[in-house]
Amino acid sequence: MNHPALPDMILEPLIRSALMEDLGASGDITTLTVVPPDVTYSAKLNAREDAVVSGMQVAALTFGMIDPSLEVITRVADGQSCSKGDTLMEITGSAASILSGERVALNFAGRLSGVATATAALVRETEGTHARITCTRKTTPGLRIVEKQAVLHGGGYNHRFSLSDAILIKDNHIAAAGGVQAVLEATKARASHMMKVEIEVDRLDQLAEVLEVGGADVVLLDNMTLENLTEAVAMVSGQLITEASGNVTRNTVKAIAETGVDYISSGALTHSYRTIDLGLDF
């Protein structure tokens, strides 16, 4: 699955903030002290384990923002798989510039590849079903756009990006507003015809009420047993998009997908992934 790169102007503020954090007020004093400014090198960004790659666009832009004269060649594109030992990127030019951008580039690429790899693992488990794996808003503050892009690189899909994208009525909304009927009636009275509406339920009687009242486009089936998920899909019978959440792991996701749900959402994709081990070798 190919996805277009994000515009550089969107990524630059994220990268600039990370570079400012890492370089501090005085810059890379180690490199400035021990590496002559005229020394040039060719470095390789290598994978030290198998992975699905993400963050190459961000890493390349990081080196370019440190020093526009650096030559950066991406060998493995975002969304592609790599094996241990593969060279993902080559960077040639000022050794001092490469060293100053190394950690920020690796921090982004390792973490985003971790998101993509975790996503791809769930996607593989659901092969043969029509269920799609999607992320949530449980992202690292400030890095949502790149973490969600990494989910796409892993073969997954994106849920809403922000609170303003869609109406998602959770259990706390239902409790605060006075019940399923109250929240759906309020939504029907106020929501734009362009706004999608999703409502969370954790019991079949709640789902029955949602179907009776109407006004939702998607139903989020939260922490239901496999038997209840199967029954819920039958009850919906194509009237709404179904999304399952809760206790989604590599061991459980296949059985969840086989209940017939349309989407399976996992916050773990962006809050509990394992960073991929990448290294920059001179």
CATH H level, superfamily name of the largest domain: Aldolase class I
* Overall morphology: elongated
Helix share bin: 40-55%
How many distinct beta strands?
Answer: 12
Arithmetic mean pLDDT: 97
Topology order in helix (H) and strand (E) letters: HHEEHEEEHEHEHHEHEHEHEHE
Strand content: 15-25%
CA radius of gyration is 23 Å
Low-confidence stretches: none
User: Could you give a short account of the major beta sheet?
Assistant: 6 strands, parallel
Total number of helices: 11
Strand order of the largest sheet: 6-11-10-9-8-7
The CATH top-level class label of the largest domain: Alpha Beta
List keywords for this structure.
alpha/beta, 11 helices, six-stranded parallel sheet, about 45% helix, about 280 residues, Aldehyde Oxidoreductase, domain 3, four-stranded antiparallel sheet
Walkthrough of the structure:
- The protein is elongated, with a radius of gyration of 23 Å.
- The chain has 282 residues and is of the alpha/beta class.
- Helix 10 links the parallel strand 10 (241-245) and strand 11 (263-265).
- Helices cover 43% and strands 18% of the residues.
- The protein has a six-stranded parallel sheet.
- The longest helix is centred in the middle third of the chain and has 31 residues, at 95-125.
- Helix 7 (180-190) packs parallel to helix 8.
Topology:
Elements (H helix, E strand, L loop, with lengths): L7 H16 L5 H6 L5 E8 L3 E2 L3 H11 L4 E4 L6 E2 L4 E8 H31 L6 E3 L9 H10 L13 E3 L1 H7 L2 H11 L6 E5 L2 H10 L4 E5 L3 H11 L4 E5 L7 H5 L5 E3 L2 H4 L6 E4 L1
Parallel strand pairs: 6-11, 7-8, 8-9, 9-10, 10-11
Antiparallel strand pairs: 1-5, 1-12, 2-4, 3-5
Helix pairs in contact: 1-3, 1-4, 3-4, 4-5, 7-8, 8-9
